[in-house]
Protein 1
Amino acid sequence: MPLPPGPTAPPLVQFAKWLRDPLRYLDGVYAEYGGMFTMRLPGVGPMVIVSHPDTIKALFVQPEIDAPGDEELKVLLGENSVLLLTGPPHKQRRRLLMPPFNGSRMTVWGQAILDMTESIVEHWRPGTRINVRDEMQEITLNVMLQIVFGDHGSDRRQQLRRDVGDRMLYGSKLSAVLPLWMPFLRPFAKGWQDSMAAEKACDDAFYAEIRECRARSDPEEASVLAMLCRATDETGRALEDHEIRDELMTLMVAGHENTASALSWLIYWLGTYPEMRERIEAELDGLGPDPDPLAVAKLPYLEAVCNETLRYYPPVMLTMRRLIREPVEIEGVRLEPGTKIWGSIYLAHRRPEIYPDPAKFDPDRFLGWKPSLFEFIPFGGGHRRCIGMAFAIYEMKLIIAAILRTSRLSLVDGQDVKPKRRTGLLAPDIRFEVNVDAVGQPATPPPQRIAAE
Ligand code: HEM
């Protein structure tokens, strides 16, 4: 089957380069082969990678190209995960999962996000350093747990937090992740076995939550779990426990680490360019001592900095896999059915004809200008577009606003912060720390009870 040209090194060598420094690898291959190339990794087969906006558009909208989801994730997320469903069941599940993370429902979470952030910042001590990724992950995991499970029982919550946290830890260990694509490694890889044990602990906790939620049967309960327990499909059938479990796992896996990675970069950029931090602080000051979360979300410069952060080092490097269903010609190459194709979010964001001087971190490029849905794709697009997109941007803005209002952080001298691959995610080096120069107390209203609409 003819495929676009690409590196000829053996798959294992390409894989080693990808693992060590994916951005350097992608930049190198792009320089040699242009915007459409085939890379080969062991266990995955030929991967066609594209980044031109017209091709990204084809990927997202063309009917000859399917969006089947990433099959390998079945063993972790379960076959009922929205990430793996296709066709009408996929559409229907998206319709079910989207409302809590969009529109008016989302705005209800605003004050809770501000409060949760401030309660983490309260523990920072002036004169010490914090590990940025750990702290951001703590905040985004707490937010996700609160939204998905509600706030029932703090002891149980702590245990759930530990179980989910342990499970996520294995997402960053190669010995736990490689066997996903190379199942023959599973019996030998200790990381894989440990990750399966952590998965089991998580499952037990999720099933206990599902049982209790069903027993409470509170029609007013606003958590995503309660909504899933109440949901029925078009035939009136309620979701079964194992289907709910798969979605809980999906939301935990898909819904906090990438936001934490984006926030870590945001802190890095604001430390690197204090004038940008001051511009955001001036916008926040304009909202008074007790800003409305919705007003924070509308601040134009804050929005521009968030967009540029997501452009520069997109937390997710590749879209999910697409599959050619019927022969189709893309960029002059005829692709046959069965060809697997991914959008490179990173390369799409580095095209100089769309983003002049792409290697410059320049939020002003987003002021008064909006890229198309195929030029700016941190959340993918088409049938698989991230269901948490609006929520993640909202969350980023509120968390950074709460941090800026309650603390003063600065970069540690001489620290070289480089992007590092963490499974498929791109995050700052795990050791990235900042100085806590000051911590203050803004005037905050008492936390609101989150009620169902
Ligand atoms: C900055 C944070 C985030 C980034 C960069 C991000 C990025 C992405 C990307 C690139 C995709 C694949 C889209 C495609 O292939 O076209 C995706 C899918 C998905 N994301 Fe996110 N995401 C973020 C936050 C979230 C949050 C907060 C949630 C939780 C609600 C979430 C839930 C999902 C789900 C469930 C899918 C699969 C959708 C489907 O298969 O239909 N994500 N995300």
Note: Residues 69, 82-83, 94, 101, 250-251, 254-255, 258-259, 262, 315-316, 319-320, 378-382, 384-388, 391-392 surround protoporphyrin IX containing FE (CB under 6 Å).
Protein 2
Amino acid sequence: MAETKDKAGVPDTLIEPIEMSSLDSSFRDAIHSMPNGEELSACFACSTCTAACPIANQWDHKPHQLIRMIILGMRDEVLSSSEIWECLTCFQCQERCPQNVRVTDIFFDCKNLAAEAGKVPSSIVGLGKELLGKGQLYQVTADWEREDLELEPEVPGLSTDAVKLILKSTRTGKLAGDE
Ligand code: SF4
Ligand code: SF4
């Protein structure tokens, strides 16, 4: 479904035909059999999910197209797409779907399947390493604010040790290459 570019006389927006022989119906069946995929086949491609999505205009494959690609069985394209990892998980698409398709949750399932297939982007693995190492993604650096309020520089009792320990026992630990 890549956009066709640089072809004389062909509009940029023309979509290349899907290679039907490369479709994998077991991918659709796998998603459909998951608790979040029960309503997958009810999608009637209305694009409401895409209209609701705050970042769809940045994506090559919009939410309604990704759902359609799943229904068609485009396993490699979906699991290799950057969009499933860029999703903000704001649930706007899912809340507004008139067919109760669990769009956001299905993208979560796609991420899990992509992880099992070793298709996690390096940027996401990097975030996993940060979490494993520090127990948090963003360190609070506003020590001066605490000082202004005459508080101790360190938050009393704050510890990320438990978070790090838990993460090491999860798939985050494996994906981030924790030994
Ligand atoms: S809003 Fe729901 S029914 Fe409409 S295209 Fe998106 S998933 Fe399909
Ligand atoms: S949950 Fe993801 S796909 Fe759905 S509207 Fe938000 S950013 Fe878009």
Note: The first helix runs from residue 25 to 33.
